[in-house]
Write a structure and sequence with these properties.
CATH topology of chain A: Transcription Regulator spoIIAA
Strand content of chain B: 15-25%
Structural class of chain B: alpha+beta
Oligomer: heterodimer
Number of helices of chain A: 4
CATH class of the largest domain in chain B: Alpha Beta
Largest sheet of chain A: 5 strands, mixed
CATH class of chain A: Alpha Beta
CATH architecture of the largest domain in chain B: Alpha-Beta Complex
Radius of gyration of chain A: 12 Å
CATH architecture of chain A: 2-Layer Sandwich
Largest interface: A-B, 25 and 27 residues
Shape of chain A: globular
Strand content of chain A: 25-35%
Number of helices of chain B: 18
Chain lengths: 99, 534
């Protein structure tokens, strides 16, 4: 129930997710990232079509952020109000770069 | 300002704006008009009132001090909001102005004990109440409809109160809906489908447990009928009737009270129950009694009368009723069906006879003949039976509130879908649903991963919804190792990405998004309860 689309623009990798990022689908994202996270300097997550994120999804985001802190950058855009609140209570708003 | 005196009621018409500029003037005029006379009640008619400031509100308070029964009527929605915000609506009678709705030329689509339902346009229907002073009835019906909805019964809730001529009406949204009566009348080949859906809804109603005190007890009503009959039946029969009704044990399951095919609507693919004002709790025999009356009892002499009421004839009504009984009882055993019908007839005739006598039926020869026939049948039935009780399988609903499932990660979607289905029924916001989903996921995945490790086991998920305030309670139960997930210390959410461990957020998020999370280990089970107000 999660569809992941990847687009590469020069050194930028844009990931658009449609559906739910939960315990069942987080491994899917993890796999996609492990294959391509090092190839792009700037990693961009587009959340416009993401309906839901659970702690399993947050774990993947945090791992990605740690990797990108070491080299490169990571941005999350088009975050819905509901997901924004989850970022707020978990302190992710301070960790992630949210546009 | 216009001031009217009618008998002992003084009505002052408030106009335009009342603020600090003119409030004392308004107060003086009203007090002058009252003078030394002591009217039984003072009414402020706010039809032409556009605005009221706190200075104006103080005038009302002062007047109310001297005239405690003071009421404000015909208040516009804007001004009503001021009364509501300032708490005046709780303190005194403040009545809204109601818009007028005409039912001229409108199709009648339903009829219940207290009123008639008309379609006023494509999307809306209005229920017009018989009682001229129906505001309490309307309030009651709104409350019980809301209760039914929360308990999982699909129904429509009124969103507006209007005036229809001199009566009150409540407006419901009912898009493209067709009543079951109309379907049966127009499409006779659909009768079996109608029976199936009608019985499904009936079983849902009868398997719904109602919290104590929320609905009237039908048994008390029927005991009242049986007591009334003491003067109209031979002594033995009268005593037996009362004893049989009194022997029906208390039952806390819902009954509709007026469950016939005009009160069931098909809207798109959804079946909706309407006309909820007779909702009660009680034994299913009381429901079957009113159903018997609606399809047979009322029409035992006047066979044609049913056409005007239901739109279909008595043969169709008989076929529908007999098929309904068999489907409800899940049997084709004629003897069983007959005995249940007879028990319903005992209560049904009791009601019909009482109703007709109270309406002067004994003085009218045609109606007297009806009363005599019902009485003869009632006495015969009382000679044949010693109890009103019968067996019916009503377990369906309990299963629906509870899911027993293998605790493996792959089942997360099933658990979430189960919980969401219940939430959707009560109109949960997107945000609350997401927070609840989050909590459900964390807890269920915890059980799946750790409770039985390295073995596998099962988990039970129960969803309960309470009203006032609307609150959802989700309970998880497993028989794995005792483990209190709440005992773990909360993570430090202020740490930077580099310093934060990637895990450990789950339970913290649950605590943050739920109003209350409780854990206990009892009788060999981990029981975790989440509560959230919607």
């Amino acid at each position: 129930m999660l569809d992941i689309k990847k687009t590469v623009n020069g050194n930028e990798l844009v990931i658009v997710m449609t559906g739910r990022l939960d315990t069942l689908t987080a491994p899917q994202l993890e796999e996609e990232l492990s294959a391509s996270i090092d190839s792009a300097e700037n990693l961009v997550f587009d959340f416009s079509e993401l309906e839901y994120i659970s702690s399993a999804g947050l774990r993947v985001l945090l791992s990605a952020q740690k990797t990108k802190n070491a080299s490169g950058s990571m941005t999350v855009k088009n975050v819905s109000e509901e997901i924004r609140e989850i970022f707020d209570v978990t302190g992710f708003s301070d960790i992630l770069t949210i546009e | 300002m216009k001031i009217d005196r009618d008998n002992d009621i003084l009505t002052a018409s408030l106009e335009g704006r009342i603020d600090s500029g003119n409030s004392s003037d308004v107060e003086n005029k009203i007090r002058e008009a009252i003078g030394d006379s002591k009217p039984a009640s003072v009414v402020l008619d706010a039809s032409a009132l556009e605005y009221i400031s706190s200075a104006g509100l103080r005038v009302i308070l002062r007047l109310r001090k001297d005239h405690p029964s003071l009421r404000v009527i015909n208040v516009s929605p804007e001004v009503y909001e001021v009364f509501e915000m300032t708490g005046f609506t709780e303190m005194m009678t403040v009545e809204k102005a109601y818009r007028q709705v005409s039912i001229e030329g409108c199709e009648e689509i339903g009829r219940g004990a207290n009123g008639t339902i008309y379609r006023i346009d494509k999307d809306n229907v209005v229920k017009v109440y018989k009682n001229a002073d129906a505001l309490d009835d309307i309030q009651h019906e709104r409350e019980v409809a809301r209760l039914a909805l929360i308990l999982g019964i699909p129904t429509a809730i009124s969103y507006d109160v209007v005036r229809v001529g001199d009566s009150y009406g409540s407006v419901f949204e009912l898009l493209n809906a067709t009543s079951f009566s109309k379907m049966i009348a127009n499409e006779p080949d659909k009768i079996d489908w109608c029976v199936q859906e009608y019985v499904k809804m009936l079983k849902l109603i009868h398997s719904t447990v109602v919290p104590e005190g929320k609905l009237p007890d039908m048994k008390e009503t029927v005991v009242g009928w049986a007591k009334f009959m003491q003067d109209y039946l031979p002594e033995d029969a009268a005593k037996k009737l009362l004893a049989m009704v009194e022997a029906v044990p208390h039952n806390d399951h819902m009954i509709h009270g007026d469950y016939h095919t005009k009160n069931l609507e098909l809207q798109d693919d959804e079946v909706l129950l309407v006309d909820m004002d007779t909702l009660a709790v009680g034994n299913p025999v009381f429901e079957l009694a009113s159903m018997f009356n609606a399809y047979a009892g009322f029409f035992e002499i006047d066979h044609e009368a049913i056409k005007a009421f239901q739109g279909f004839d008595l043969d169709t009504a008989t076929e529908f009723w007999q098929k309904t009984l068999r489907a409800y009882l899940e049997t084709d055993d004629e003897e069983v069906v007959r005995s249940v019908e007879d028990k319903a007839r005992i209560v049904g005739y009791t009601r019909l006879i009482r109703r007709s006598i109270r309406r002067g039926g004994l003085e009218d020869p045609a109606r007297k003949a009806e009363i005599d026939l019902w009485t003869k049948e009632l006495i015969e039935l009382l000679g044949k039976y010693d109890t009103l009780l019968f067996d019916v399988d009503l377990e369906e609903k309990k299963v629906k509130n509870e899911l027993d499932i293998e605790a493996i990660e792959e089942n997360l979607s099933t658990v979430t879908a189960f919980v969401d289905e219940r939430l959707e029924k009560v109109g949960c916001s997107m945000k609350a649903q997401m927070q609840i989903d989050l909590a459900v996921e964390e807890i269920f995945i915890n059980i799946a991963k750790y409770a039985y490790y390295p073995d596998k086991g099962r988990a039970t998920v129960r969803v309960e919804v309470n009203d006032e305030p609307v609150q959802v309670k989700i309970t998880f139960l497993d028989h794995g190792k005792p483990y209190d997930p709440l005992a773990k210390e909360d993570p430090d959410v202020t740490l930077s990405a580099a310093d934060r461990p990637v895990g450990g957020l789950g339970v913290f998020m649950v605590k943050q998004s739920m109003d209350d999370v409780k854990y206990e280990y009892k009788d060999g089970a981990n029981i975790l309860t989440l509560t959230k107000s919607l």
